[in-house]
Amino acid sequence: MLGFSAMVLMFLGVSDEDIAKDYALTKFGLEPFAPILAARFEKQPVFKLNWEGLLSMGSAKAETMLATLNAIREKHGGAAGYLKKAAGLNDEDLTAIRAGLLVIN
To answer: Which end of the chain is less enclosed by CB atoms within 10 A, N or C?
Structure first.
């Protein structure tokens, strides 16, 4: 699943490489919580049968984000297309969001 911040960054025109680097930092934020999450999820049958899948949930590989961004581009034409389809936004909405988030000197 594409994270909210990655979608916003993609929409604003941030390079895929920078988005992927930012995403990879997620690993460091999750590491302190890994034991807590593991203890909680190991009780769920789906993870008991797929412990490797549980462990991969804590990873945040740049390559994964790059592949996701490419998939969004191929399937929806990019972030704007995705936001129009998934969130029901229109061009006016997107223009307003972009204007509210970007500061150009």
So the answer is: C
